[in-house]
Amino acid sequence: MTTRQIVRSLEPTQDNLLAILHRVQNDSTRNFLDEPEIREVADYLELPYSFVYGVATFYSMFSVQPRGRHVVRVCASPPCHLMGGRTIRDELREYLGVEFGDTTEDGLFTLEMSSCLGTCGIAPAMMIDGEIYGNLDGVRLREIIDRKRREEP
Amino acid sequence: MDARDVSLTINGVGVKVPEGTTILQAARTAGYEVPSLCFHPDLKPNGTCGMCVVEIEGVGVRRSCCTPIGEGMRVQTNTPRVMDTRRTLIELILADHAADCPICDKHGKCDLQRIGQDLGIREIRMPAKEGYSRRSDGGIVLRDPNKCILCNRCVSVCTEVQGVANLTRIGRGYHTKIGTAFDLTIEDSVCVNCGQCVVYCPVGALSSRDDTREVRRALADSRKHVVVQEAPAIRAALGEEFGLPPGTVVSGRMHAALRKLGFDRVFDTNFAADVCILEEGTEVVERIVSGSPDLPVITSCSPGWIKFMETFYPGLRRLVSSAKSPQQMFGALAKTYYPREAGLDPAEIVSVSVMPCTAKKFEADRPEMRSSGFKDVDFVLTTRELARMIKESGIRFEDLEEAPADELMGSYTGAATIFGATGGVMEAALRTAYHLVTGGELENVDILPVRGMEGVKEAVVPLPLPDGGTLELKVAVAHGLGNARRILDRIQAQLAATGKSDYHFVEIMACPGGCVGGGGQPFGSTLGTREERGSGLYGEDRSLRSRKSHENPAVQRLYETFLGSPCSEKAHHLLHTGYGQRERVHGRSVD
Questions:
Q1: φ/ψ bin of B366: left (φ > 0), alpha (ψ from -120 to 50), beta (otherwise)
Q2: Least CB-CB distance to A57: which of B167, B171, B584?
Q3: B168 contacts in chain A (CB < 8 Å)
Q4: What is the distance between the terminal CA atoms of chain A, rounded to a whole angstrom?
């Protein structure tokens, strides 16, 4: 589907803005919203470009900068922190070789911090794209990342 | 339906105010000032700064700007808890504010500085936030994110009042900043340079380009002959910078101050405003009488409006009068007509204007504004910049003797001076249009329905035609680009439906209140201040001997000796222009 078709897959009402942005971003191989896409959405909903851009930068799920094919979000809330989240964050930084907010050189992963993922029962936890991974430790973490790498064509 | 009155007490003082009033307004009625940063009476309250907190008995601490009153409410504005909250909040704001007060454009006019002083803040306990790199945006509207307190007033005026919606909040929480769509610099964005964000900013985060150094340099250069023009709205606001009440008309002292600053000739934009009426009035009458499909004629004096139109309503550009603004008409004549009369080489002339407007700087820099063969207006100063030059030079404004402008391009009528208020161009044009159509003179020149602060004003003006019939002239006046959108959308809909609009003549000014409310005017204004400035201009209009542009002898002389007649070939070459089309991300020309 073209961006235009994705944008037009929902009614042009302002309350559909977030849903449309999600659909557009999900279709992006680099997990972000570029300028022509934001313009397309704004024009369709008859909203100012600045408004849609402001929304896209406000919500942490959206990005206006290109990201990796997979977005790794590590939970930074207190329950995960207490269960060793700090170590998980350090290990991920080291294993991926990037700082938070950055993307690996091969363009596969962007590492981000996240507020509570709502899965405190399996803390420490992280989310890759839409999927939750809990009870993390250094070994499991590497396995998960390696598996993601292997899935790549 | 009349609002019900509600009784409450503020600090024990009983007040009765209409239902729906906010606590902040009620407190002011009761005689108590409540400090506020994000709140401005002209804008919708948004409650971002929290300075206006008060304590409501049985409820707790609330932001008074966005909390409506309730029956029997007992409000305290000055309890220890309230004071502590305000102190903590202002410390937090100050921790994140580059407080380089002595070198700040808003020094002495800054709400944050004033409240910090009133609250006696002497220490900031929080660590300073890491600053933004100072990026040199360039352009006319300048910003310093290190001073921004995220109060949202600029976003609010840009979006809700002006309908430009260029500014927005980018990011969230600690990392929030004010910027444009796609985080472009303001210069590279669709900003129309109206400068309303600059005048509504409570601190020095937004300012405008300063051109006083270039003007000083020209004044000091003995090989240059420097002429100056001042827009109508300057005379009703300049006095505020010297402690006079808004609306005090200081034309004479303004001319005297400019002479003391060393300008070789002190002319007046009002002269060019009279010329503008003859050119635009002739165009309006021609289009109406010939039954042109290009109706209504829309005024073209406001450069913020022109860039807005080129960006957001390019389809309507054929309707916009081809007459240049008074500033640019003056500029073209200052390097053609004036040197011819004075026996000067136009290359020696430096033409300076003093404008209530930041968009005028953009207009003067437009590439097509060189019909004299030179840059028609070399430098544009705002009212604020002129006031600073006067202060810097140690000229005691209050002691100046009143002086007239130099005659050749400085005489003006009442019609010209009201250009500075919303509806003024319309009224001035109607006074002359009557003469152009009927050959007679309008007896009562006060056309009241087009005056005042109503956002969109409409009127039907009967115009007797030579054939004995009457033309019901339908006119509309909008000030503030948000209001302009309302009338433009209506015209667009009419044109789409029937190919014809029922308006004949429309005045649009970019700024609320017209030029008196321009982005270059003294800080600290409200719509009320702007109305007072406008009243000052209507007062000067009444006091002048001649109140119709076509009666200006200096203008008559210009046509007799130089231009021929209004809209002549020469007039067209020097005094008229055309408009382009701009794309909606960068506002760049696409023709």
A1: beta
A2: B171
A3: 48, 50-51, 53-54
A4: 22
Check whether residue B179 and residue B38 sit in a common domain. Answer: no
Nearest C-alpha of chain A: how many angstroms from B583?
Answer: 12
Rounded CA-CA distance B380/B391 in Å is: 18
Check whether residue B222 and residue B186 sit in a common domain.
Answer: no
- Shortest Cα–Cα distance, A51 to chain B (Å): 6
Residue B301 among the catalytic residues:
yes
Residue B123 has pLDDT above 60, yes or no: yes
Pick the catalytic residue: B194, B197, B301, B511?
B301
Q: How many C-beta neighbours within 10 Å does residue B555 have? A: 26
Taking the C-alpha atoms of residue B359 and residue B85, their distance in angstroms, rounded to an integer, is: 40
Q: Please tell me which residue in B19, B368, B392, B583 is annotated as part of the active site.
A: B368
Among candidates B371, B416, B170, B384, which has minimal Cα distance to B278?
B416
State the ipTM, two decimals: 0.93
List residues of B whose CB lies inside 8 A of any A CB: 159, 165-172, 180-183, 584-585
Alpha-carbon gap, residue B414 to B543, rounded angstroms: 8
CB B374 within 8 A of CB B347: yes
Q: Look at residues B511, B287, B323, B319 and name the one whose alpha carbon lies nearest to residue B420.
A: B511
Nearest residue on chain A to B191, alpha-carbon basis: A50
- For A59, other C-beta atoms within 10 Å of its C-beta total 12
Range of the domain at B53: 5-78
Residue spans of the domains in chain A: they are 3-58, 70-151
Annotation: CATH topology of A70-151? Glutaredoxin (3.40.30)
Average pLDDT, chain A: 96
How far does A149 lie from chain B, in Å, by closest CA? 31
Q: Read off the pLDDT of residues B394-431 as tens digits, 9 standing for 90 and up.
A: 999 999 999 999 999 999 999 999 999 999 999 999 99
Model confidence band, residue B252 (pLDDT cutoffs 50, 70, 90): very high
For residue A74, the cross-strand partners are A113, A126
Residues B21 and B137 both lie in one domain:
no
Catalytic (active site) residue B341:
no
B189 flagged as catalytic: no
Residues of A in CB contact (< 8 Å) with B are 35, 38-39, 48-54, 57-60, 64
Distances (CA, A) of B49 to B89, B90, B133, B151, B167: 8, 9, 24, 6, 18
With H, G, I as helix, E, B as strand and everything else as coil, classify residue B292.
coil
Q: Closest approach of chain A CAs to the CA of B557, in angstroms?
A: 49
Contacts of B172 in chain A (CB under 8 A): 57-60
Same domain, B467 and B510: yes
Instruction: Tell me what pLDDT residue B1 has.
Output: 46
Active-site position among B307, B360, B457, B548: B360
Chain position carrying tokens 């964005």:
B189
State which residue of chain A sits closest to B156, comparing Cα positions.
A51
Residue A119 has pLDDT above 90, yes or no: yes
